[in-house]
Design brief:
- With 158 residues, the protein is mainly α.
- Helices cover 68% and strands 0% of the residues.
- It is built from seven helices and no strands.
């Protein structure tokens, strides 16, 4: 996702790929976070809609990649909010905290996405996963379970 007016959504050409802090303003964060959440929701929808059987790459790797922009923007935002906060950043933090929580809940309560992860979990011994891949699968399965993805709709709503 590119937005020439928002340095958080541009490719960073700074040394070592560091955020262009000299160009980032508080008013850039909310649109960047909104755009990043929208991008991730679309990516998750593509994973769920994928007609191919669940596999490590088309499910877990795709899920990992789906949140790269959000992770990048959130890291800058929360880094600044923690280290060099001000009234504007605190106001944004109050606004986006519930949005980010809801966004995460939407992903980790998605029945279609959980079905793909659960299918991988059930056949984990036959997938030929290396130790790192097996750990990633285990972590995602645990995260989904703890979030309540295996619950019925009433349980999820609760």
């Amino acid at each position: 996702m590119q937005d020439a007016g928002n340095p958080l959504l541009e490719a960073w050409t700074t040394p070592y790929g560091a955020p262009p802090f000299d160009r980032i303003r508080p008013e850039h964060f909310r649109p960047a976070l909104d755009a990043a959440m929208t991008e991730q929701r679309a990516a998750v929808a593509r994973i769920v809609a994928d007609p191919a059987p669940p596999g490590f790459d088309n499910t877990l790797v795709a899920l990992e990649k789906s949140g790269l922009l959000l992770g990048k923007v959130a890291a800058v935002f929360f880094g600044l909010a923690g280290a060099d906060t001000n009234d504007a950043l605190q106001a944004i933090e109050r606004d986006v905290a519930p949005l980010l929580s809801r966004h995460s809940d939407t992903i980790f309560l998605d029945g279609g996405l959980f079905a793909r992860v659960a299918a991988l979990w059930e056949k984990r011994d036959g997938l030929g996963l290396d130790a790192e891949q097996r750990r990633v699968l285990e972590r995602y399965h645990t995260i989904f379970q703890r979030a309540g993805a295996g619950l019925d709709e009433a349980g999820k709503a609760r």
